Amino acid sequence: MLKIKLFTFNPFQENTYVIYDQNGAAAIVDPGCYESEERETLRSFILEENLSPQLLLNTHCHIDHVLGNAWVKRTFDIPLLIHDKDIAVLNSVKIYAPNYGFQQYEPTEPDGYLSTDQDIKIGDQTLEVRFVPGHAPGHVVFYHPESGTCIAGDTLFRESIGRTDLPGGNHDLLLEKIKSELFSLPEETVVYPGHGPVTTIGYEKINNPFVGKNARF
Fold first, then answer.
1. pLDDT on residue 217
2. Is residue 54 situated within a structural domain?
3. Strand order from edge to edge, sheet including 14-21
4. What are 39-85's pLDDT values in tens digits?
5. Predicted pLDDT of residue 213
6. Does 215 map to a domain?
């Protein structure tokens, strides 16, 4: 059984996830925690639930999803995994972070790279890695078939999609990948996005104005 805990952090209202199995093995996905209070909220949950973090995963490396990377790595002594096509995206954060008011942003390096031909193990649970670029060149999502859940980052939102006007963005590619990599999942799949409320694949197939049945854009 896989459990998912959602936290919303930082001024971008970014969704950070802790995913864990029945034995307490856990992964932290997209830690947006920057302020000390946010970090304490995340740490307290992990301690209270007696979890044992094993991996730090980034769906992609825009600033709002990586603000807590260095702190999580150091606090829980776990490796950071990203897709190698997002290395430049991660490295650029330290350059522009002060412009967004994050003067104390601490950069860190990845310890390994995610690949679509290699599943991720969290305890006795297995996550599929799916490559969904367009919002960011190295964007991936994590799909857990047994629970019918998908940690989707900034690819697919409730009635929206990730923006594609940032460096490395590609609107047509994102639409194509949503259709091939996400809309190929069962309609009852619950989508946990990088911002906003959860949704389902079936709902977005009908109602999403960008890629749904009655798309307007």
1. 77
2. yes
3. 2-9, 14-21, 25-29, 52-57, 80-82, 112-113
4. 999 999 999 999 999 999 999 999 999 999 999 999 999 999 999 99
5. 84
6. no
Give the pLDDT confidence score for residue 93 in this predicted structure: 98
pTM here?
0.97
188: helix, strand or coil:
coil
Contact between residue 209 and residue 159 where contact means Cβ atoms under 8 Å apart: yes
> Is 162 contained in some domain?
yes
Which residues in 1-11 are b (16+ Cβ under 10 Å) and which e? Answer: ebebbebebbe
Which residue range(s) make up the domain with 34?
Answer: 2-207
Distance of alpha carbon 114 from the chain centroid: 13
Distance CA(71)–CA(73), nearest Å, equals 5
Q: Is 12 helix (H, G, I), strand (E, B) or coil?
A: coil
Q: Are 16 and 42 in contact (CB under 8 A)?
A: yes
| Structural domain total, the chain | 1
- E strand or H helix at 160: strand 160-161
Please identify every stretch of the chain with a pLDDT value under 50, giving residue numbers as ranges.
Answer: none
The CATH number given to whatever domain includes residue 65 is: 3.60.15.10
Residue 213 inside a domain? The answer is no
